[in-house]
Each structure stands twice: as structure tokens, then as C-alpha cells.
Amino acid sequence: MAIKIELENNEQRVLGCLIEKEITTPDQYPLSLNALTNACNQKSNRDPVMTLSEADVLDTLHQLKEKHLLTLETGFGSRVVKYRHRFCNTEFGELKLSSQELAILCVMFLRGPQTPGELRTRTNRLCEFSDVSVVDSVLNTLSGRNDGPFVTVLDREPGKRDSRYAHLFGQLNAAEITLPQEPQSTSNTPSNIDSNSERIDYLELRVDELENKLADILERLR
């Protein structure tokens, strides 16, 4: 039976951040409202970049709790509430995902539709893919699951070599996403474009790591 989970844009961002931080910075997880707001508004590894207030994030957390996709925790002797996702792999939840499936959906929640090559690069802190063919295989699994589908392939963008994939947990069917029309360029070959994209992704990952370390320091000083 198909699992139906409809997520608004802010809900995708919040869930994506909780999933990401659970894997990449387990010592800081679950997240406080302040830490989660900072994660939602990161300038690296986010598309689009958002400027959510703590009130915006709190409203979104209430929505996710009503959908049973979130739990609240308080530490012994602490009044600070922290938040943990229940999107998948919980004791009583129906949705079960492998680490690779979860990583792909997490990055899609944070950055929208992407090519298999982009997904391989951008999930390298969440899981390991030996090559792009493994990403293709996991995408095929997500698109063909009996309780899904959870992803779909989009039409190839003009001038691009590979098609993008989008998750199907949003309010709009991914097949209805309007693809941007880009002029053909004679100055950049596909290999140059891919190389530039990989360098940008690497720099964004380094910035993300530094932001995480700074957030950890600031959280400990609070």
C-alpha cells in the first residue's frame, strides 16, 4: 500500500535539516529551536537559501508534530526543548529506508531536483556511493517501490547532459515542475560544466563543515 506524506516547502526544509544533522553531527542531535533555525537558513547546501524566523520554524514544527513526523525531547534538568524527526525508520512508522535512500531524499528536501551525479557528490557526508551507477540503482528503487513511488525523473533541461530527479513528497507532482529554459552556450562544454559544479559542491561542503563547527561552539557557550 502506498505511503502518502505531503510536505510543504518549510516542512521539507525542517525535515531535511533534522535528517542531515542526525547523520553528520550526532553529538548535537536532537536540535534546539535555535540550532534548527540556523540549519534551515544555512547559505551552503541549501537551494533556495531561506531566511526563516524562529517563529516560522516553530509553526512548521507544530505542523510536523500533527502529522506524527516529529517528537519533542527535554534533557534532565533542562528546560530547552529539542526536536527529533520521525520521518522514517521508527518503531511504529511505516516508512523504512536504507541509508542511501534516506540520503538522497534528505538532499532533495534541502536542494530540490538534482541529477544522479549531483546527488552522489552532495550526499558524500551522509552515505557512500561507489559510483553514479549505484545512485541510478537507488533512484530506480525509490521510483518503483510498492509503497511509493517516492521519486520521479524529470525531462532533461536544455543544454544539460543528464536528467534531474525529484522527490514526490511535495504538494505538487514533480512532473509539473517548470524547467528553466537556458540558452545554448558555445563557451562551456558539458565536461567543463560538470567540473565547475563539482568544485562548487566541494567548497559548499567545506563551508558547511565550518558552519557546523561554529554552531557547535556557539551552542556550547549558550
Which key terms come to mind for this protein?
single chain, mainly alpha, Arc Repressor Mutant, subunit A, 2 domains, three-stranded antiparallel β-sheet, 7 helices, globular
Structure, briefly:
The chain is mainly alpha-helical and about 220 residues long. The protein has helices spanning about 10-25, 35-40, 55-65, 100-110, 115-120, 130-145, 190-220; strands at about 30, 70-75, 80-85, 150-155, 165. The chain has 2 domains: about 10-95, Orthogonal Bundle (Arc Repressor Mutant, subunit A); about 100-175 and about 190-205, Arc Repressor Mutant, subunit A (Orthogonal Bundle).
Describe the structure.
There is one protein chain. This protein has 222 residues and is mostly helical. The chain has two domains: 9-93, Arc Repressor Mutant, subunit A; 99-174 and 191-204, Arc Repressor Mutant, subunit A, CATH 1.10.10. The protein has seven helices and five strands, in the order αβααββαααββα. The protein has helices spanning 9-24, 33-40, 54-66, 99-111, 116-122, 132-144, 190-221; strands spanning 31-32, 70-74, 81-85, 151-153, 165-167. A three-stranded antiparallel beta sheet has the order 1-3-2. A hairpin with a 6-residue loop joins strand 2 (70-74) and strand 3. Helix 1 packs across helix 2, helix 1 crosses helix 4 (99-111) and helix 5 (116-122) crosses helix 6 (132-144). The N and C termini lie far apart (46 Å). Residues 172-176 and 178-191 have low confidence and may be disordered.
